[in-house]
Amino acid sequence: MATIVVNGRITPAGKLEVDLPDGLPSGEVRVILELPQESDAAWTDEEIREMLKPSPKSGAEIAAMLDEMEPGYQHIEDSAAWVEEQRRKRSEEHRW
Predict the structure, then answer these.
(1) How far apart are the C-alpha atoms of 17 and 24, rounded to whole Å?
(2) Which of 10, 43, 61, 92 is the S-S candidate for 57 at Cβ 3.0 to 4.6 Å?
(3) How far is CA 85 from CA 14, 77, 79, 96, in A?
(4) Virtual CA dihedral for 15, 39, 32, 25, nearest 10 degrees?
(5) pTM of the predicted model as reported, rounded to 2 decimal places
(6) Rounded distance between C-alpha atoms, residue 59 and residue 81, angstroms
(7) What is the DSSP string of 39-72?
(8) What is the number of other CB atoms lying within 10 angstroms of the CB of residue 50?
(9) Which 3 state secondary structure label does DSSP give 28?
(10) 19 CB contacts (<8 Å, ≥6 apart)?
(11) What's residue 70's pLDDT?
(12) Which pLDDT score, from 0 to 100, does residue 39 have?
């Protein structure tokens, strides 16, 4: 049995409407419905407004947040020099 994927819609009356391509032979078919998955994370309008509210931080607050964060690249004093060193190492690793 060949598989053809077409888009369709279910009407309020419970009828299935699909747009079939031209040239299909008449006869029995097997219909499989795939419904769009609904998200469990449906937010209310109020929740969305709350998430979109700006909450600016002062420089001191940002610095305090950075101090609390896991140390990542604080050991790098010159970021441009660090990037060049990484490029040099990679080019040495990947030489023919």
Answers:
(1) 16
(2) 61
(3) 65, 13, 10, 19
(4) 70
(5) 0.34
(6) 26
(7) PS----HHHHHHHHS-----HHHHHHHHHHSPPS
(8) 10
(9) coil
(10) 6, 7, 8
(11) 65
(12) 58
Q: In which residue are the tokens 């790098």 written?
A: 76
Helix/strand/coil for 10: strand
Tokens at 7, concatenated: 């888009």
Long-range Cβ pairs for the range 70-79 (8 Å, 24+) = none
**Two tokens at 92?**
């040495």
pLDDT at position 65 over 90: no
Q: Which residue has the tokens 């053809």?
A: 4
Residues with Cβ < 8 Å from 16, sequence gap 6 or more? 8, 9, 10, 31, 33
Which residues sit opposite 10 in a β-bridge?
16
Q: Looking at residue 81, what is its pLDDT?
A: 92
Is the separation of the CB atoms in 17 and 9 below 8 Å? Answer: yes
Place of tokens 């610095």: 63
- Is residue 37 predicted with pLDDT exceeding 90? no
